[in-house]
Design goal:
The protein is of the alpha+beta class. The protein has helices spanning about 5-10, 20-30, 40-55, 60-70, 85-95, 120-125, 265-270, 330-340, 350-365; strands spanning about 80, 110-115, 125-135, 155, 165-170, 170-175, 185, 200-210, 220, 240-245, 250-255, 255-265, 270-275, 285-290, 295-300, 315-325. The chain is elongated and about 105 Å long.
Length: about 375
């Protein structure tokens, strides 16, 4: 089912400004929040859709991209991106309204990296180096954001709590302190290298061990390789989501490998042997019995995919596709004609005769 347009999800026009987006999100999030709708899966799904829509539309760059390309702009893309985001958005809007998510200070971020590998790599496993753009702690200020020789001071607005409370109607809303942005402290003399953020953008090279037998959608976690929060907090994790690319010869189904192989009509009729490639780069001999039909399968045991976290392998299945010869010479046509006339009343095409006998019975039933 196609995803609903983000503007329709929030119930706003495409010309809505930031305040309209925030107001619509706030109203819907309060209405569908799981704490208000316990054991209501539809409300939980709606809440997730609302958060997803607001995460994109509240960011000018993401919104511009979405307006141009729609949902496709954020699907099946490579590179690193934040693995979460929904709780961050809710904290930004309502603070601890839903029961508290964090104390003061920055929030570390998990990252997601989409990695596409070949079927051969999935079979044998591989160590792959990836380039991940991320934020790392600033070395001159050791992640504090303050100029060397100075330190952040306690925020006077929240008195170091990182959060402030406000009365709104029947609710007491606790939200992130707007003065210190939840850190509980402010920087009077910011670091010149990171402009007081405590982080700098950097591309780092990481090594990923892809195990043999990995399947499409496998998630690999690299602990501590995400982004640190501002203020020197420990970094989050990096999650590698593996996608296995389609192969031009083989099709995979779990630990099984399927390969459709064309068989010359003469070999299918008289029998013989053929060689087929295998996923491990070797060749395997397959005996073709006389009278082989298209669609008939032959199993090669232990010639399939590696099984994840096991030393065993699945099986390979060869599906015969009997090929009708083309561009026949005059003599070849004569031989086929002789073959057809030399039947002596015997059946050489059981499938065809069986089909047309059923057709005859069908026609007879219609004329009765």
């Amino acid at each position: 089912m196609a995803k609903q347009d983000y503007y329709e999800t929030l119930g706003v026009p495409r010309t809505a400004d930031a305040d309209e987006l925030k107001g619509a999100y706030r109203k819907l999030a309060m209405s569908f929040h799981p704490d208000r709708n316990p054991d209501d899966s539809e409300a939980e799904t709606k809440f997730k859709e609302i958060n997803e829509a607001y995460e994109v539309l509240k960011d000018e760059e993401k919104r511009s991209t979405y307006d141009r390309f729609g949902h496709a702009a954020f699907e099946n893309g490579g590179g690193a991106q934040r693995a979460g985001g929904f709780s961050d958005i809710f904290d930004e809007m309502f603070g601890d309204f839903a029961g508290g998510r964090s104390s003061g200070g920055g929030r570390r971020a998990d990252l997601r990296y989409n990695l596409e590998i070949s079927l051969a790599d999935a079979f044998q496993g591989r160590k792959i180096e990836i380039q991940v753009p991320t934020a790392v702690s600033c070395e001159p200020c050791n992640g504090s954001g303050a100029k060397a020789g100075t330190s952040p001071i306690t925020c006077t607005h929240c008195r170091g709590a990182g959060r402030v409370r406000a009365q709104q109607g029947f609710f007491t809303i606790e939200r992130t302190c707007p003065a210190c942005h939840g850190h509980g402290s402010v920087i009077e003399e910011p670091c010149g290298s990171c402009s007081g953020t405590g982080r700098i953008r950097k591309e780092k090279t990481l090594s990923v061990d892809v195990p043999p037998g990995v399947v499409d959608g496998t998630r690999i976690r690299l602990s501590g390789e995400g982004e640190p929060a501002a203020g020197g907090d420990s970094p989050g994790d990096l999650y590698i989501f593996v996608a296995v690319a389609a192969h031009r010869i083989f099709q995979r189904d779990g630990s099984s490998i399927f390969c459709r192989v064309p068989i010359p009509m003469s070999t299918a009729s008289l029998g013989g042997a053929i060689e087929v490639p295998t996923i491990d780069g070797t060749r395997a001999k397959v005996t073709i019995p006389a009278g082989t039909q298209s669609g008939q399968q032959f199993r090669l045991r232990n010639k399939g995919m590696s099984v994840l976290r096991s030393k065993s392998r699945g099986d390979m299945f060869i599906e015969a596709s009997v090929e009708t010869p083309v561009n026949l010479t005059k003599r070849q046509r004569e031989l086929l004609k002789e073959f057809e006339e030399a039947g002596d009343g015997q059946s050489h095409s059981p499938a065809s005769e069986g089909f047309f006998s059923k057709v005859k019975e069908f026609w007879d039933d219609l004329t009765e």
